[in-house]
Amino acid sequence: MDQPVLSALDRPNSYIGRSVPRPNAHRLTEGKGQFTDDLPLSSRCLHVAFLRSPHAHARIVSIDVEAARAAKGVVLVATGAEIAAVCKPWVGVLTHFAGLKSAPQHALAVDRVVWLGEPVVAVAAATRALAEDAIDLIHVEYEELTPVTDIDQALAPGAPLIHPELGDNLAFQLAIESGDVDAAFGDAHAIVEGEFRFNRHTAVTLEPRSILADYDAS
After folding, report:
1. How many CB atoms lie within 10 A of CB 147?
2. How far is CA 132 from CA 24, 27, 52, 97, 100, in A?
3. Hey, which of 85, 116, 155, 175 has its CA 20 to 30 A from 107?
4. First-residue to last-residue Cα distance in the chain
5. Domains of the chain, each with CATH number or no CATH
6. What value does the mean pLDDT take over residues 68-85?
7. Which of 62, 35, 89 is nearest to 143 (CA)?
8. What is the pTM of this model?
9. C-alpha distance from residue 91 to each of 94, 99, 103 (Å)
10. Using alpha carbons only, what angle is made at residue 147 by residues 139 and 208, rounded to the nearest 5 degrees?
11. Adjacent-strand bridge partners of 140
């Protein structure tokens, strides 16, 4: 039986219960796919490694990068304050989440780290190995702050504020009520309450988002 031709209006449900042809399947299964890491690099291109925070919440007291800057093959060592001078922070905006609160997110932490693994210093070097070797030469002094690792703890009165300028730790809330809710509960034969916890889910592609930049002055 021939499958009907689907228009753009049929998506995103156009794949359910259907055999979907994949024009790139032969190329990928034969090992002929080309990904960002397969592209030939110019001799001018560098590799970047990041020094990441070992703490979930801490104030950055000091950063010593002098040894890293003098290391073999290193072209640039950048701290959060240096990057912030030329790169504006990103602020999350979702038009369908009216009232969403989002703190400015810098490319590298500036004064504090607010999650485990947040990048603090970037090192650009001739090779990935040299960049990672230089990372080991950087010394960062932290003042540990109280982390918030649980949703209920984050919303409790007096909880440590991860972004004090936002007033609380609640980014967004949405309530949907339709009809006479109180009457529905009052007339219900039985009421079942439960608390459900789900781990975060996200789509993960075979190749993550990547950027390969090669500046040519000509």
Report:
1. 16
2. 35, 34, 12, 40, 37
3. 155
4. 57
5. 42-147 (3.90.1170.50)
6. 97
7. 62
8. 0.73
9. 10, 13, 6
10. 70
11. 63
